[in-house]
């Protein structure tokens, strides 16, 4: 059994999608949801689905003596970032080598790096006049959005698109592909 923790900062649609995808799995278990924000709606989604959750403020996230025992207590084997905004500290990357995955709402390396999340990304795609955007699923490294790319999926951007319609298109890709790519990663580990 592979125990995963999902780290979130916001509403948690990807988090819920992942939990639901693996709910009946005999090999993968969503063991814990971790949020840096106590008001993240993802915590309510996790509770409704029976997954334990905890709030770890950003200052605590950067403390090995807080995070490592928490993850050990829940027997976490793999961490999935699903709309998690803080940088993952190096000690966690070292403790979970090639076992932390992030989803980014653009086709990296375009529109990545510090400050590039959510609506900021979609506004940048529109401002750049890009004709396509998408999602990138990648391993987490000490460089923001710089880890090895696992998979990318794209969608066209047309002149009439707004940052909001671009966000909607990207969300469709996230819902369709993120759990399936995770399943492929986990299959290689099990």
How would you characterize the overall build of this protein?
- The chain has helices spanning 13-22, 41-48, 58-61, 64-73, 90-95, 118-128, 163-189, and strands at residues 2-8, 28-35, 53-55, 78-81, 100-104, 132-139, 149-156.
- The model has no long low-confidence stretch (mean pLDDT 97).
- α1 links the parallel β1 (2-8) and β2.
- It has 190 residues and is α/β, with parallel strands linked by helices.
- It has a domain at 2-97: Formyl transferase, N-terminal domain (Rossmann fold, 3-Layer(aba) Sandwich), CATH 3.40.50.170.
- It has 7 helices and 7 strands, in the order βαβαβααβαβαββα.
- The protein has a 7-stranded mixed sheet with strand order 3-2-1-4-5-6-7, covered by helices on one side.
- The protein is 40% helix and 23% strand.
- The radius of gyration is 16 Å and the shape is globular.
Task: Give the arrangement of secondary structure elements.
Layout: E1 2-8, H1 13-22, E2 28-35, H2 41-48, E3 53-55, H3 58-61, H4 64-73, E4 78-81, H5 90-95, E5 100-104, H6 118-128, E6 132-139, E7 149-156, H7 163-189
Parallel strand pairs: 1-2, 1-4, 2-3, 4-5
Antiparallel strand pairs: 5-6, 6-7
Helix pairs in contact: 1-7, 6-7
């Amino acid at each position: 059994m592979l125990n995963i923790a999902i780290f979130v900062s916001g509403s948690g649609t990807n988090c819920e999608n992942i939990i639901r995808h693996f709910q009946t799995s005999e090999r993968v278990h969503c063991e814990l949801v971790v949020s840096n924000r106590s008001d993240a709606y993802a915590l309510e989604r996790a509770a409704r689905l029976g997954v334990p959750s905890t709030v770890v403020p950003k200052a605590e996230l950067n403390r090995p003596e807080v995070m490592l025992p928490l993850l050990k207590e829940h027997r976490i084997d793999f961490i999935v970032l699903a709309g998690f905004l803080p940088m993952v500290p190096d000690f966690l990357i070292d403790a979970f080598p090639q076992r932390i995955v992030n989803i980014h709402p653009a086709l990296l390396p375009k529109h990545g790096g510090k400050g590039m999340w959510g609506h900021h990304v979609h506004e940048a795609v529109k401002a750049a006049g890009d004709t396509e955007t998408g999602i990138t699923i990648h391993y987490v490294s000490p460089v923001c959005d710089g880890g090895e790319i696992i998979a990318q999926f794209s969608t066209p951007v047309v002149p009439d698109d707004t940052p909001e319609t671009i966000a909607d298109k990207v969300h469709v890709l996230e819902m369709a592909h993120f759990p399936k790519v995770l399943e492929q990663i986990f299959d290689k580990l099990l």
